[in-house]
Amino acid sequence: MAMVANPALKRFVAQMRDELVMAQVLIRRNGAGYELRQLADRGLAPESLRLVKAGDARTLAQHTATGVFRPLKSAPTLQNGWRISASSDGELELALNQLYPGAIADWAAAQTVNPPVTNYREFTQRQSGMYRITTMLDDAQAAQVIRAGCDQQFCLKRRLWTVAGLEPDDMAAKSLIPCLEPCAVLMELARKAVRIGQEEKAGLVMKLAGESKSE
Ligand code: SF4
Asked: What is the C-alpha separation between 158 and 178, in angstroms, rounded?
């Protein structure tokens, strides 16, 4: 059966020179294939790094070096001490899709004239169920939540989507992996921010009600 070429992958490898840094992963061309390792291990001898199969890259992405689960695969907490030898473009894609799910497709989408970006308002208005209340944050509150949740100390994806009054992320501060719409982790943070605001308001109302009765 003929292999179906992935246009996004084709474009990704075509723009790559000898090496490329994708968030915390250093990708180096190695003959017809590639070597991947944690950027912090750049100067280490290959023999000193544990060889991991491209198909097993998920085991590196799931937990930090101390065994803490990583809900956000783009968090700057990728463990080091390993290397992957990818023998083909397909193996490179296999490994990257486990380390940074969807990164190649999103990178290619962000290169188009009109990247498919969904901003906070549009995204939250589409939500139903528990995330519906995220529409209740005003622009300044939403910006505060986004600044905190998407900060480079928590996530290396470059946020292209916005809310009124907030600029997209600068690539220099993040990475070449774009973020095209709010993620589940950010949505949960926004939901909690609404809940805390509601609880604070309810507490204030109770306090005022108590004060008016005692007057
Ligand atoms: S929404 Fe923010 S935290 Fe989530 S992936 Fe995008 S940039 Fe990262």
From this structure: 5
